[in-house]
Write a sequence for this structure.
């Protein structure tokens, strides 16, 4: 059976779990904390990051790489567009949002959620304000111009939608919401993705694990 190393609550692990749930591919989630500096885990993934996937003799790190492999290996219910230019755009949105966007959202989540609840430290609100007021808005403006007012980016739900929305669920745990009056398309997409049954099921499991429900 496919093993996914990681934890509920990671925006990157979430993408992989949603894809497996939609494709109805059985998997085991092997608990692996990020930042654990676990030598055995680093043999699977030298970066020590989650997720890592093991499918038989294949071991892969990075949610983008894992999702693209799983979509090709388990082709039922495809989660990337087929048309070449759409596919390239989907890859770009996924790279952008699991990269720069996720990094900024993670900054809010880390400061306002992990620091007080996990490490009993005060959040650095100056840093959070810089992210919210200066660093995120240009990226949100860009996404707003690419996201439709209704439905999903490429018609059917795809990993592009999941990748765009996922970092904002973590920022949401830390009390940050995309301002729907300034970025209505993006805020709408984040809500629509949440309503995909497999996404809401994974978010419900996370909320339990994070002590939010
Ligand atoms: N680009 C990677 C990012 C993975 C990532 O940064 N995961 C975080 C957890 S949410 C992590 O493991 N951080 C630990 C570290 O950076 O050492 C992906 O998409 O899988």
């Amino acid at each position: 059976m496919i093993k996914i190393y990681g934890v509920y609550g990671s925006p990157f692990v979430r993408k992989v779990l949603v894809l497996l749930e939609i494709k109805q591919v059985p998997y085991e989630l092997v608990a692996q904390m990020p930042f654990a500096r676990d030598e055995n885990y680093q043999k699977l993934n030298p970066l020590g990051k989650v997720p890592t996937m093991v499918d038989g003799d294949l071991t892969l790190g990075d949610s983008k790489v894992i999702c693209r492999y799983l979509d090709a290996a388990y082709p039922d219910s495809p989660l990337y567009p087929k048309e070449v230019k759409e596919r390239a755009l989907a890859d770009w949105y996924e790279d952008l949002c699991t990269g720069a966007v996720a990094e900024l959202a993670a900054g809010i989540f880390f400061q306002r959620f992990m620091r007080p609840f996990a490490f009993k430290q005060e959040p650095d609100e100056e840093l959070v304000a810089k992210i919210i007021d200066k660093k995120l808005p240009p990226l949100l403006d860009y996404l707003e111009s690419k996201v439709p007012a209704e439905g999903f980016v490429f018609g059917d739900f795809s990993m592009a939608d999941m990748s765009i929305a996922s970092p904002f669920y973590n920022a949401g745990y830390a009390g940050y919401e995309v301002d729907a009056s300034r970025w209505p398309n993006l805020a709408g997409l984040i809500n629509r993705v949440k309503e995909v049954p497999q996404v809401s099921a994974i978010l419900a499991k996370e909320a339990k694990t994070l002590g939010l429900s």
